[in-house]
């Protein structure tokens, strides 16, 4: 065989190899570049069933308790905003100083569900799928199973081993935030006005304890008054569900007392009614109502409140969730794959 023919044969072999790899999902599993960035299908080679297992477990979990769908969506937000999407929200602290113990997380639910999915995954692909990715996939599935959009979730996150209550206190905006506060909290995480308006649509599903908004009803400025930006009829309904005093912890983030839907009328369906609700009534939290106080967020709320189809919103939502899911992630050699998600930090 001549030198030229040999060269041609080699090129042919390389081309066949490339085509075969593309056909198998397009990844060069384990190549350094692929290992160090988030991407759709990160587990396709390492644990091809990972996403199917999460979805199947999520179906079973929500069949047993449908109220966990919003809780698991919320968990992804609380994980990502505190030291990045690194699964640290799952860690437990014996001294009561971990993220779970922080005020905004006292009303968090769904830890056992994530651990259940992790335990299942450990039986099929040992030490392969991170807790941070499980939370991201569970959030996507929670939305999908609440009649919201399906979107491609990026994976490849590693888990962190630090969990500090103060970080959660500092990085999660309280529900009495105004739009300036909200924009500050979100811009620190590289999320802009449109992202805020889109991500707040998460409040289309789920409930809140009365304590998180009680002040708006009974003592807005310290003079036993009501928040004037809250629709009077809606306020009257809320007062019936949340009588004065209540059993709330009064810490402004929920955690005690009765619960009410954040988007009344469609509290477990991921749809546009949250935007109509915010526009018409001022929403449940001051932070929801604050979307009306900025031209960008208000414009978006008005557009969606009047939209005839959720298609545009669903696309925006997918993009915003993917963007939030990239917040300060650990990849490659940074971080670890834990054996259990809910281990102790101290
Ligand atoms: C300034 C921003 C935000 C504030 C102040 C806020 C505040 C709250 C509060 C106080 C609750 C009620 C907790 C309880 O009493 O049980 C809640 C629930 C919830 N939040 Fe947010 N939130 C914000 C942003 C977000 C974002 C960006 C997402 C999603 C990406 C989200 C998803 C949810 C969901 C789904 C629930 C319902 C949880 C359940 O039913 O268990 N929130 N939020």
From TrEMBL:
GO terms for cellular component: extracellular region. The record marks 74 as: Transition state stabilizer. It comes from the Eukaryota. Residues 1-25 form the signal peptide. Keywords: Calcium, Disulfide bond, Glycoprotein, Heme, Hydrogen peroxide, Iron, Metal-binding, Oxidoreductase, Peroxidase, Secreted, Signal. GO terms for biological process: hydrogen peroxide catabolic process; response to oxidative stress. Ca(2+) 2 binds at residues 263, 271. Disulfide bonds join 47-125, 80-85, 131-341, 210-242. It is found in: Secreted. Binds 1 heme b (iron(II)-protoporphyrin IX) group per subunit. The active site is at 78 (proton acceptor). Its cofactor is heme b; Ca(2+). Its EC number is 1.11.1.7. InterPro entries: Haem_peroxidase, Peroxidase_pln, Secretory_peroxidase. GO terms for molecular function: heme binding; lactoperoxidase activity; metal ion binding. It holds the Pfam family peroxidase. It catalyses: 2 a phenolic donor + H2O2 = 2 a phenolic radical donor + 2 H2O. Ca(2+) 1 binds at residues 79, 82, 84, 86, 88, 99. CDD domains: secretory_peroxidase. Removal of H(2)O(2), oxidation of toxic reductants, biosynthesis and degradation of lignin, suberization, auxin catabolism, response to environmental stresses such as wounding, pathogen attack and oxidative stress. These functions might be dependent on each isozyme/isoform in each plant tissue. Belongs to the peroxidase family. This is peroxidase. It comes from Zizania palustris.
């Amino acid at each position: 065989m001549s030198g030229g023919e040999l060269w041609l044969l080699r090129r042919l072999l390389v081309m066949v190899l490339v085509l075969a790899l593309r056909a198998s999902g397009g990844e060069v599993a384990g190549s350094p570049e692929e290992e160090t960035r988030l991407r759709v299908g990160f587990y396709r080679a390492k644990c091809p069933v990972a996403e199917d297992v999460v979805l199947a477990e999520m179906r079973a979990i929500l069949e047993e308790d449908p109220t966990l769908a919003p809780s698991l969506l919320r968990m992804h937000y609380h994980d990502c905003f505190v030291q990045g999407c690194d699964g640290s929200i799952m860690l437990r602290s014996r001294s009561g100083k971990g993220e779970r113990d922080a005020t905004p997380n006292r009303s968090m639910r769904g830890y056992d569900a994530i651990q259940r999915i992790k335990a299942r995954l450990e039986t099929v692909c040992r030490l392969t799928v991170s807790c941070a990715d499980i939370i991201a996939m569970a959030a996507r599935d929670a939305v999908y199973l609440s009649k919201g959009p399906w979107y491609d979730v990026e994976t490849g996150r590693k888990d962190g081993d630090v969990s500090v209550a103060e970080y959660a206190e500092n990085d999660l905006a309280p529900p009495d935030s105004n739009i300036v506060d909200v924009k500050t909290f979100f811009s620190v995480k590289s999320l802009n006005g449109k992202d805020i308006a889109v991500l707040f649509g998460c409040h289309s599903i789920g409930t809140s304890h009365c304590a998180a908004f009680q002040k708006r009803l009974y003592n807005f400025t310290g003079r036993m008054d009501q928040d004037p930006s809250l629709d009077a009829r809606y306020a009257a309904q809320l007062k019936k569900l949340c009588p004065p005093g209540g059993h709330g912890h009064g810490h402004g983030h929920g955690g005690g007392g009765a619960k009410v839907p954040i988007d009344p009328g469609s509290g477990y369906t991921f749809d546009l009614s949250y935007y109509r609700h915010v526009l018409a009534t001022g929403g449940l939290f001051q932070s929801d109502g604050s979307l009306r106080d900025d031209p960008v967020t208000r414009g978006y709320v008005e557009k969606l409140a009047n939209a005839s189809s959720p298609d545009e919103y669903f696309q925006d939502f997918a993009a915003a969730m993917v963007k939030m899911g990239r917040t300060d992630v650990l990849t490659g050699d940074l971080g670890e794959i834990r054996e259990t998600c809910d281990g102790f930090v101290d």
